[in-house]
DNA sequence: TTGGCGATTGGCT
DNA sequence: GCCAATCGCCAAT
């Protein structure tokens, strides 16, 4: 759990992102999410993702393109941000070819940079709770609809980077909190990592 | 125009 | 573990 130096992290090139949604979800484990705020830089290592592939009844693109979900149809590597349950924002990375609606939900990160900023944004000092869960992650990183459609393969307000550190063993299982297509093993996580959300039994 | 419904969270039992 | 809060979205009226 050594914090990586951001200077050794480089922004992800779109060409290295797998086109396939499930493959992208796995690929993103261990990568870094960087958020630039006026107060400073906030960042963390991705430890949990979920794939919402082509034709997924649980995916927001299932019923076609709308003003809300259009970012899912952008070329892979763009942000799709939406509000869930009236209170929590969710950060997704668009996947597949341009014009095809699919994406990867970033469910949790292990905080590495700007922890004091995250603590203020979240109203807690419990490191484990800062960004464990998709809504908490967005709150900690000050992510909302204003970032919807942003290119995450470009340094700016929010981007994805490499990490010098190798992620732990990657587990795969059912997605959390959905009712349709709930059985598909499209959730990826770092095994036995304390910053992964969901029941302990699902993180082994 | 309206009503049902979430890719969740935090507080309480 | 259970449950209410909360509100934008969209299918159907």
Strand and helix map with partners:
Layout (H helix, E strand, L loop, with lengths): L20 H8 L3 E6 L2 E13 L26 E6 L3 E7 L8 E11 L1 H8 L11 H7 L17 E4 L8 E4 L13 E4 L14
Antiparallel strand pairs: 1-2, 1-6, 2-5, 2-8, 3-4, 4-5, 7-8
The chain binds a DNA duplex (13 and 13 nucleotides) through strand 3, strand 4 and helix 3.
Briefly summarize what is shown.
This protein is an alpha+beta fold. The chain contains 3 helices and 8 strands, in the order αβββββααβββ. The chain has helices spanning 21-28, 115-122, 134-140, and strands at 32-37, 40-52, 79-84, 88-94, 103-113, 158-161, 170-173, 187-190.
Describe what this molecule looks like in 3D:
This protein is an alpha+beta fold. The chain has one domain: Methylpurine-DNA glycosylase (MPG) (3-methyladenine DNA Glycosylase, Chain A), CATH 3.10.300. 11% of the residues lie in helices and 27% in strands. The longest helix is centred in the N-terminal third of the chain and has 8 residues. The model has no long low-confidence stretch (mean pLDDT 95). It binds a DNA duplex (13 and 13 nucleotides) through strand 3, strand 4 and helix 3.
Please supply descriptive tags for the structure shown above.
DNA-binding; globular; 204 residues; alpha+beta; 3-methyladenine DNA Glycosylase, Chain A; single chain
